[in-house]
From TrEMBL:
The keyword Cell cycle does not apply. The chain crosses the membrane at residues 58-78, 85-104, 110-131, 143-160, 166-182, 189-209, 255-275, 287-303, 309-329, 341-359. It comes from Runella aurantiaca. This is Glycosyltransferase RgtA/B/C/D-like domain-containing protein. Keywords: Membrane, Transmembrane, Transmembrane helix. It comes from the Bacteria. The keyword RNA-binding does not apply.
Length: 496
């Protein structure tokens, strides 16, 4: 576990934790300085409250804990379906070997998928526990109001971990509602719906009381709407985002998970051939329909934005494993003889093969090639600030908040939402200037056009945006220019 950035997304969440920890208004900061995903930073905040610093090794450790909780819930869900302890363990084995041996940075790094998959797995487990466990009574009346209200709240909170969770959350909610309707569980259904809306109602009231109602909808809805349903962030036309080639390229792009993805897909195919004889809406087929629908909607969620980020595929292992478990637990699975053992064999071989490959091929995670230049910038920033001073990075290099330990002076750790063409450009400029006036960051760093910046060209430097340029000229002066081989390098400004 290196103290240097393993993945840019991890820096985003650690920057949020640092900002919340040093804020005089932590709730507001938690809801507004976390990239519209406040629940993603909650596990990191818990670790911070327990005395762990906001560092990359700690974040990776927190990610491991999240995945372990996911595996425990998934394993128990498979046991509820009727699988024996050994068979349930075999089904989750590919997940265990992949997570235990991967060295791929997009899988190692702490990101919003770790929390999202945990929450979705808990939702699936609750659905199975309520309606499809092997020791299920004649009806579900033994489940209390607290269960249904809590489950509704959990589903309603999914959007605050990641907007991509919404389609899968709606699938879980729809199947829960259908089961309650056919059982005439109207009271339980009412509490489920109330719980689902409760988080958003509470957050909206909070923003409205602060006179920031529009801020919530701009940052929590419209930003992600444009992200997923326009060509603002991906130039790939929306209708081309769901091609089979894109599915395959995302799933098999990384060798660190390629074998188990192949095994899962083959196991699902054999499972359907062996167990699906006729379809109806009886209890067993409803569970299969749920598992298959959830998987299909998960594919939709990872493809919708059109971006080729392999960490999106972290959504897939859990629903694939769950679907295999459902196929193996179906009553008709006892009639397909050796094919059932073939499925277990495929799962075992893919798990062992992936583990051996990863262990023989993995290499230590090295610091970024420009780490030396990073540390020059960090040294200058630290020499000109105190630990509670705010920092603003004009560009996309969230790691500097982590390296310096300074809180964000602007509610987003990166400023691509301002200098990329966007329907929200004017809103972002307004928020930027308001935050700069309120937080009065001591240091402003322009990295656009430099080699150490992830996204942002020379034409995206702050002086090309008149309102930003005027503000910086009025309040800041250039104190250092770190050469990284680009025309201007990293330019560091200090508040006058």
């Amino acid at each position: 576990m290196t103290p240097r950035e393993p993945n840019i997304d991890t820096s985003t969440w650690l920057a949020g934790v640092i900002s919340i920890d040093k804020s005089s208004d932590p709730i507001w900061t938690w809801l507004n300085y976390t990239d519209g995903r406040p629940l993603t930073v909650v596990p990191l905040l818990i670790a911070n409250a327990l005395g762990f610093d906001a560092t990359y090794p700690v974040a990776e450790g927190v990610g491991i804990v999240c995945w372990l909780f996911t595996l425990v819930i998934l394993y128990n869900t498979l046991r509820w379906l009727s699988l024996s302890a050994l068979r349930a363990l075999i089904v989750v084995l590919p997940l265990l070997t992949w997570l235990g041996t991967t060295a791929y940075h997009d899988h190692l790094a702490y990101n919003s998928e770790a929390v999202s998959v945990l929450m979705l797995t808990a939702g699936i487990g609750a659905y199975v526990y309520a309606f499809h466990r092997r020791d299920l009574p004649a009806d579900n009346r033994q489940l209390s109001v607290v269960f249904w209200l809590s489950l509704g709240i959990g589903l309603g909170l999914l959007v605050y971990a990641k907007f991509q969770n919404v389609p899968m959350g709606l699938v879980i909610a729809a199947f829960l509602a259908y089961e309650l309707i056919i059982q005439k569980g109207w009271k339980s259904l009412c509490w489920l719906v109330v719980g689902g809306f409760m988080p958003t109602v509470v957050v909206n009231v909070y923003f409205a009381l602060r006179g920031e109602f529009d801020t919530f909808w701009n940052n929590y809805f419209w930003y992600y709407f444009y992200y997923g349903y326009s060509e603002e962030f991906s130039k790939l036309p929306v209708w081309k985002r769901f091609s089979p080639w894109r599915v395959g390229s995302l799933m098999w792009q990384s060798y660190a998970i390629r074998f188990v993805f192949g095994g899962w897909c083959l196991a699902v195919l054999v499972g359907f051939l062996g167990t699906v004889k006729k379809l109806s809406l009886d209890r067993s087929n409803r569970l299969l329909l749920f598992a298959a629908t959830f998987l299909c909607v998960t594919f939709y969620a990872i493809l919708q934005s059109g971006n080729p980020y392999t960490h999106y595929t972290l959504f897939l292992p859990m629903p694939l494993t769950f679907l295999i478990g459902v196929l193996l637990s179906r009553p008709s699975a006892t009639q397909w003889g050796s094919l059932k053992n073939v499925v277990y064999g495929i799962v075992l071989v893919s798990a062992i093969g992936q583990g051996i490959f990863n262990l023989t091929q993995r290499q230590p995670l090295e610091p970024l090639g420009y780490d030396g230049i990073d540390q020059q910038v960090v040294k200058i920033i630290k020499e000109n600030t105190h630990p509670t001073d705010h920092l603003v990075i004009w560009g996309y290099a969230d790691r500097f908040y982590v390296y310096t330990g300074l809180p964000m002076g602007y509610r987003w750790p990166h400023t691509i939402g301002i200098y990329w063409p966007s329907a929200q450009h004017d809103i972002r400029v307004k928020d930027f200037l308001a935050d700069m006036n309120q937080n009065q960051p001591v240091i402003f760093v322009d990295l656009n056009g430099s080699l150490i910046n992830t996204e942002g060209k020379t034409e995206h430097q702050h002086e090309y945006f008149p309102p930003i340029a005027n503000f910086v000229k009025q309040h800041y002066q250039l104190i250092a220019q770190v050469n990284d081989g680009s025309p201007k390098g990293a330019r560091i400004y200090k508040r006058k």
